[in-house]
Design goal:
The protein is mainly α. Helices cover about 75% and strands about 0% of the residues. Helix 1 packs across helix 6 and helix 3 packs across helix 5. The termini are close together.
């Protein structure tokens, strides 16, 4: 669990960064602001990498989170960087990250 706590800290830290990056920003502004899109992409990469490193036991005990999808997003961003779908990223950030944060905050 100690290693998991470190990864959870990184995930929560990056979720908070994304929240700061997107404060007061609507989708149209997001997609037209390269600094913000790149910052959010990088935070999602870190979240995905940290999720990959969580123990199987932790993931098994928190099945409500689609861990494979969380980790897979990182791979999509890194390996398909010429074709990043910002609508998908926006939807994930708006819909899925709050749920992930709520699940993990109790382990902080």
């Amino acid at each position: 669990m100690d290693n998991d706590k470190a990864y959870i800290f990184h995930i929560l830290d990056e979720i908070e960064n994304i929240e700061k990056f997107l404060t007061g920003i609507e989708f149209d502004n997001f997609v037209n602001d390269t600094k913000t899109t790149k910052a959010v992409e990088r935070s999602l990469e870190i979240i995905g990498e940290a999720a990959k490193n969580l123990s199987e036991e932790f993931k098994e005990n928190n099945k409500e989170i689609p861990w494979r999808d969380v980790a897979g997003l990182r791979d999509k961003i890194i390996h398909h960087y010429f074709d990043v779908d910002y609508q998908t990223i926006w939807d994930i950030v708006q819909r899925n990250l709050p749920e992930l944060k709520e699940t993990l905050i109790k382990y902080k």
